[in-house]
Amino acid sequence: SARATPGSTRRRAPGGVSSEDESSMEVAENGVVTDGLAARSARARAVARGVRSRPAKASVTSMVHTQAKERVRGVHLSPRKMANLAQQQKVRVGTTDSMRSYLKDIGSVTLLNAGQEVELAKRIQDLMHLESIKTNLEEESGPGASIGDYQWASAAGLSEHALNQRLRDGKAAKNEMIQANLRLVVSIAKKYANSNMSFQDLIQEGCVGLIRGAEKFDFQRGYKFSTYAHWWIRQAVTRSISDQSRTIRLPVHLFEIISRISKMEQKFSLIHGRDPTVEEIAAEMDMSAEKIVQIKKASQAPVSLAQSVGSDDSRTVEDTLVDINGEGPEKVSGKSLLKEDLENVLNTLSPRERDVLRLRYGLDDGRIKTLEEIGTVFSVTRERIRQIEAKALRKLKQPSRNSILADYFSSGEGTLQ
Known about the structure:
The chain is mostly helical. The chain contains 20 helices and 4 strands.
């Protein structure tokens, strides 16, 4: 912290905060910009305009100054370094006092080194192992069964005291790992600050992903925890945006494609000074032009049926609809995309497996056929058809194939007509 030399004087602002303190104490250890920096910038702009500015009120600044002073004591930052930190940590969304306080609090937590991460990960894995034992006991005992500590400890080969001690130790390690990486959640949430979700909600969803990452982290693979947790946090944030930011939910993988197309269009416009054509987007995204058109239609914002049409406001969108009982464009687009993706997945199977599934589930004509009927078509027994069907379904459950269709069925779009 700054110290006055003998004989020097300080101009004090209201509330007991000196201007020198304000200029050196607004950046905490994590680089979060406090009210003082904004106040100082405002005074500097006023002076540049030739207007004499009033000293900023220090009711909030004095409290921030006291906390910041404790955090930067003994740390000497150059003005350029402080400016860089301020720029890096600047939050481009409106923040309340509670959010600003939260950002300061998580910034004061000491980061973990590699050895500390490994030690915490071992204790967390032990916690997850013990909890899995209890889960297995509950499943074996049936619905509504209550597992006591004695039964739990016996299954784990521990005394009740040892069990409770290891549970407390594991939970403490999990909490420490999460607290030390909350800044990572904020940094990822900032990248999606322009979405339709509030910054606070983005952080909350990111914390859910961070918790999941802490529970799944395997230190033996040699990765840093932040590298591993980044994926879980980003997945939680993007999934929440996909689920909650639109009136009509889109599958997560489709939402990510829409985001990539949007970024590509912005970059193209900056370089060429015009919007890209569908063909140019298709070439950049390595997709067909027809699919790009379908995706862009699905990404369009819904229009209210009560919206007025024309200048006299006498008619609404609903009045212009020919068939109000027909399927909406978003459902038609969703089915079209589903059928196309389903066709691509089926093409990864052998011809016989593909034909058996088409006949078994009526993918072509909507008529489901029995094993005996399909066996007659291929001149084999019904048991052979059952084996082919089972093998094909096992292949479809593989992550490389299953991930393409999983979001359709989780969102209720998996019915083919």
